Amino acid sequence: MTTTITLNNGVTMPSVGYGVFQTPPDETATAVHTALDAGYRMIDTAAAYANEAGVGEGLRRSGVAREDVFLETKVWITDYGYDATLHAFDKAAGKLGVDQLDLLILHQPLNGDEESIALEAYRALETLLADGKVRAIGVSNFLPHHLDRLLDLRDVVPAVNQVEIHPYFRNTELLSKHDALGIVSQAWSPLGGITFYPGWGDKGRSTLDDATIGEIARAHDATPAQVMLRWHVQQGRQVIPKSVTPARIAENIAVFGFELSERELEAIDALDTGTRGGPDPSTVNRTDWAREIPEA
Ligand SMILES: NC(=O)c1ccc[n+]([C@@H]2O[C@H](COP(=O)([O-])OP(=O)(O)OC[C@H]3O[C@@H](n4cnc5c(N)ncnc54)[C@H](OP(=O)(O)O)[C@@H]3O)[C@@H](O)[C@H]2O)c1
Q1: Is residue 49 annotated as a catalytic residue, yes or no?
Q2: The whole model's pTM is what?
Q3: Does residue 288 belong to any structural domain of this protein?
Q4: By alpha-carbon position, which residue is closest to atom 15 of ligand 1?
């Protein structure tokens, strides 16, 4: 069982969910079934991950009731624009095999001349929300100035901003802004996966091997992954750790049996390098990042 976070429209979401970025489409149903068996009740996928159908299949195979699982997916930038984004909902819901999504978010901001296309995409999310097709809407990888523009020009405050947050990139300025605006900080790469993904080149430092995190883990008879997840949860963030490994899937949800002290939380905060591992969101554009999203 996990605790829940209440979004700014009153909808609740489990604090610990399960992510499927880089989970191969043909392994996704098994991975999601394993996660649901382990007790997860929140799944984060995306049109761009090409595995929404596997998520739906895993949910059906698990036998867990649809209404007991919080499903989140993301619209890719190629599908931005008012009509295209309304249709992106149909594609996602069709692949997942559901009538309603719990949370639908814009995967990336757009910049410069393309900004208005992202604003139109968000207007479509507002329509889907008003029509009851989705229970909450939000964004991902938005920087403070992207949020400012959105709030100036649109009506609904995003329920979440899903952004890179881990011990080596705490994203402190953005987190304060989220708190002030009532936006839930949803941490991607909550374990610092971007610092050690296999096959992505050596980034020099892996959060999993960090000495401070290791020491705190030993003090609680926990693992480094559990300590990182506990750090997020205690500071009010929602997390979506990804694993295709059954033992790790179980490990990552077992974070409610210990508590970090203020000193330990601060020691992890102090590991922040201020440097993101992922791409700079102010460079995202529809030419270099184009990707066709197939029909359901
Ligand atoms: N919005 C965005 O732009 C964006 C970007 C990136 C990610 N995300 C979302 O955030 C989710 C999580 O982020 P992420 O996948 O980047 O990183 P993550 O969850 O921090 O780390 C995933 C990596 O850690 C390994 N791992 C998982 N649990 C472990 C444990 N207990 N001990 C040791 N290693 C462990 C996994 O390996 P195995 O799978 O081999 O076990 C995988 O290589 C994604 O799946 C996706 O849903 C969103």
Answers
A1: yes
A2: 0.98
A3: no
A4: 242
